[in-house]
Amino acid sequence: MSTRRRFLQASAAALAFGALGREASVAFAAAPDGSPYRNLLVLVELKGGNDGLNTLVPIDDPGYARLRPKLAIGRDSAVRLTDRAALHPSLAPLVPLWERRQLAILQGVGYPDPNLSHFRSIEIWETASRSDQVLADGWLARAFGKRPVPASFAADGVVIGGNDLGPLAGGGTRAIALANPEQFLRRAKLAAPSGERRNAALAHILKTEGDIVQAAAHLDGNYAFATTFPTSPFGNAVKTAARVIANEAGVAVVHLSLGSFDTHANQAPTQARLLGDLAQGLVALEAALREIGRWDRALVVTYAEFGRRPKENQSGGTDHGTASVHFALGGRVAGGLYGATPSLDRVGDGNLAHAIDFRQVYATVLDGWWAGDSRAVLGARYETLPILKA
Amino acid sequence: MRLLRPFVFFVIAALALVGAVHGARAATADTLGAEGARHLLTRTGFGATPSEIARYAPLTREDAVERILAATRTLPVLAPPAFATAGGPLPRPGPNASAEDRKTYVREQARDTLALRGWWIDEMLATPSPLTERMTLFWHNHFVSSQQKVRPARLMYAQNATFRRYAVGDFRALLHAAAKDPAMEVYLDTVQNRKGAPNENFAREVMELFTLGEGHYGESDVKEAARAFSGWSLERGTGAFVFRPALHDAGEKTILGRTGRFDGDQVLDILLERPETAELVVRKLWLEFVSPEPDVADVRRIAADFRRSGYRIPVALSKLFASDAFWSPDNRGVLVKSPVELVVGTLRSLEVAPDDATPFALAAAGMGQNLFSPPNVKGWRGGDAWIDSSTLLARKQFVESISRYEESRTMRAMGAAPALPASRALLAPQPPIGGEADEDARARQLRIARALDRAFRDLAFSATRYVASMPGDTPSAKRRSAQAVLLPIAPAGSGAAIPADADALTFVRLTMLDPVFQLK
Question: Which end of chain B is more exposed for a tag (fewer CB within 10 A), N or C?
């Protein structure tokens, strides 16, 4: 089936899906013990902006070879998925997931009037704003503000390996940043939530101290996995994520990041290494989540500030672009290609138009995965993607 | 924490204690007293020391505010890094530069900006007028530009110098200077704005964020103002402001109901005529210096005086510092210190100064305030938003690291393994610069962490000496003085129940780990 047709069907399914309302959502059916946030979201940020065209390769498109005289992935090394699309060879470890149909590949994820600055564009993604709008809080912070994560959870979200809370920033979110659990537990001893809340600022600080203490009490990090994790930094982060997820109390979101994909020069070896780290890390994450029986309750989604320019530059690299390819995987993901294969024949020096608005991905998480109200969070109705199985 | 004994030690309100400690210098009807002096100094500067407090305690409010305003400066006391004031063309890659050259350029500018951050923190530590630097920082967060878009560190320094020149001067002149500032022209795309091809970025932000505020202008005002700013450009080589008449749209514009062949400067003057502009600035000053809840009537009154004075910033500040709200006991300890205030204020209060302040600039960045790189055009949100789980732990780790050095020295002297502060945990992971590999970013992170460890060590802060230097006749009186100096209100957590037999290090550490230490 052509991806175009599949996209049309997907859109039709999305409309039907939306029309059924909350009752039909995965989360509702899947969360008999109460909170829809038992459905875990794992976000993987591909920092710097990954080159989508060399991630999911339009392998037979003559435009591809023309735009990528040096950087084109060869037909013999690419991992063919469909009659038209192939994966970067470093992503080969994902093929079993694809064959089990638990890997959705979202083509052309972006937004209108794209901004090519790393800082501004990631802010647009993380706050789910329009291109010309500056919003203060992350989209997940807004979601949790509208509908809180149960207080019994260890935290609303855990950011592995960074101090930047990204989509969890602001809005009183109980977000915990940790490089590794031991270090967090050590530092958490500096926090103590007791004290008289004499004014709003003091109350806010004491609440935050309480969040830290609460998280520290649950994120013991002691679960001994049989799964072997890659030794790359991303592999370590995945291991930490798995240990966080294994806590009984629960977290709604885990945020991982990998980079830098900002490959302006000599892209080939860097991207090959990073995509290899990504694929091996995701496979290990799947194994770990299966081991603790959470794979069917986990949705893993990648994102980045932008993709890269279709036409390679003079330095064997690619410059900042717009729409790109992203992955969604999990036990309940309906695998396949979504969106639209980029049309390269008229692209010239320019950038790709988007086929999926990134806020559709968020709407899918909010409405489909968490049975929530994406409109209240995103400020407008975005059509969900039919990437979740009931 | 484990040193806490299960008995309760009551700390009486700071006011009474300071009164007792400072004896004759206690507040009278007319004078500040120690507590008032501390409040004024910390709110308008960075921390306070007992000797500064003693100098201000006998003054009346009016005299004290006048003294602080009279001390403000237009120039820094420390020379900036050499590149910052170099003349000639900006070091910029040409249009045909290779990707490698561009990367090198980006890294060089990032490196220079880091030096600039260290220099500014150093200036904040050294200045005899902390208010000057607080206001310079205030304008940096009002007329926002970020080096991450602007790039040349020299332009960021020039902007900083402009903010300092007008920091406590004339807002009208400041607005005009900030609008034509080269870093601003790059940051808000003024340089892209030309006749027939308008870029509305600056025109929108100058109305929304710098003057009127949202809701006080319309979309057509933005479009028309953008036409008026067209032709504002930069000299190719030096990056200095230049007006290019050929790119200017000299036609008639209608802005906020006024019609004429306005140029950019005339638009700024139209914006200055509106009462909303003065109110927006005064409201922000209120949030910076007074409380998280501006009093509408007070703001309106002070804004009217500010505007009538021809936008003299000292007028706005002196009225704010004379307001009942500024002095109200209910408004003590209600504002969260910014990371820079926490870092600089702590070092100044403890009377220690690093040889190189760069690691401390990075410590502030790890708490969410990376100087010269505000997160977006709205700047740092400030207030309670400074505190989340990540930044709060970074802030606590910072004070822990300062206080712990005495302990590690003692332990080393006893032959035990030194307990080095985990500075790495305090720093935000460094984002890769200019396509740098992750490994390189991590290596940089490690170098910075080591530098910070060394910096903490070199501070050689001694809690024992610090407490001993406090006013008071008895050890417990000295401790009460120390808390009254370090905390804006009585401690609420770890500082509230320190056993009398705890050593000085434990005492200072638990005082600074108290949540109230995060407040001003």
Answer: N
